[in-house]
Amino acid sequence: MPAALPATLLTLAAAVALGAAPAAQASDGRVATAFTLPGAKIFPEGIAADPRTHTVYVGSYTDGTVYRARPGRTTAEVFLPAGTDGRHTANGLRVDARGRLWVIDSTSGVSVYDQATGARLAHFEVTDPTKPFFVNDLAVTPDGTAYLTDSVRAVVYRVTSDELAAGSGPLRPAYDLSGHLTPAPAGGFSLNGITTDRAGRYLLTVDMTAGDLFRIDLGTGAISRVALDAGHEGGPGGGPGGKLVHADGLDLAPDGTLRVALNTVNTLSSWRVSADGTRARLTRTLTDPSLQIPTTLVHTPGRTLVVRSQFDKMGGPMSPGTETPTAFTVASVRGF
């Protein structure tokens, strides 16, 4: 069995609290509320959108509930109740090209669901759960292969379409980045968000503690550090030397725009990624306290949806907090 949830929460708190958050900058975008998530102390983390139906899914980090927000609705509904299939958390979420919903439970692995019925179609678990691990985020390439980050083991797991068809199995590491990462402080995380280019040639994944962005070539298996150019930008978004410290969720658009949520600094940043994925230039940052510790984001037509986790509030993973969380919502950021 994996480690109990309280220990996981302590590990996450150590990771996201690294470093003091800089003073908030004025917002240069339009931040509003897209929809509300019902329930108290749910502390949402992951988000996914179905580009065909425009349905949005959000997962609760503290109890594993998965919410569904239908187009035009201002309040989400429960799609998968807390504890469904033994799930403790719901952090990384993704809808693949065939409309299947992938849901990560950081304490065990990943499950795949039918959007129409909510039936579980497949499940994959971490091997050797006696050693610490934390399955965090995932990306699905055009050929149907899923890649998942482990923030403790510093590996990227792979689930192939054949394994998905089989319905279950172990999560097997495909890429080990431990030798490429800057050593993290004790209790800290490394790999977090992950995304893929439109053609499925490479993956981009971020080391949230060191602030480095890595490129994994899916043809050769080569792992390299992406050259980050923050120009004259400083502070949130670029970080020291253009690094992505505090980076959490990643979203790479077909036009090469990489959008990043930087959690404890309440910041979103936008980068222009080169055609081959080897370089990225910072083009914009938006810092606004109303983002309430943004963990993940997804760009949809006309707006970017951002999860307001409130992890720093009382009862959240970054506790002890002194403030009671407000209603849990997903932000809509236009023009970003």
Measured by DSSP, the beta-strand proportion falls in 35-45%
- Order of strands side by side in the largest beta sheet? 6-7-8-9-13-12-11-10
What is the CA-atom radius of gyration, in angstroms? Answer: 18 Å
Task: Estimate the helix proportion, in percent.
Answer: under 10%
**Number of strand elements:** 25
Largest pleated sheet: 8 strands, mixed
Distance between the termini: 42 Å
Shape: globular
Defining key terms:
2 helices; 5% helix; 336 residues; 5-stranded mixed β-sheet; single chain; globular
Give structural notes.
With 336 residues, this protein is mainly beta. 5% of the residues lie in helices and 43% in strands. The protein has 2 helices and 25 strands. The strands form 5 sheets. An 8-stranded mixed sheet has the order 6-7-8-9-13-12-11-10. Strand 8 (109-114) and strand 9 form a beta hairpin. It is globular, with a radius of gyration of 18 Å. 51% of the residues are buried.
Secondary-structure topology with pairs:
Blueprint: H1 5-16, E1 30-37, E2 44-49, E3 56-60, E4 66-69, E5 77-80, E6 93-95, E7 100-105, E8 109-114, E9 120-126, E10 135-140, E11 146-150, E12 155-159, H2 161-166, E13 168-176, E14 191-196, E15 202-207, E16 212-217, E17 223-225, E18 227-229, E19 247-252, E20 257-262, E21 267-273, E22 279-287, E23 294-300, E24 303-308, E25 328-334
Parallel strand pairs: 9-13, 18-22
Antiparallel strand pairs: 1-25, 2-3, 3-4, 4-5, 6-7, 7-8, 8-9, 10-11, 11-12, 12-13, 14-15, 15-16, 16-17, 19-20, 20-21, 21-22, 23-24, 24-25
Briefly characterize the structure.
The protein is mostly beta strands and 336 residues long.
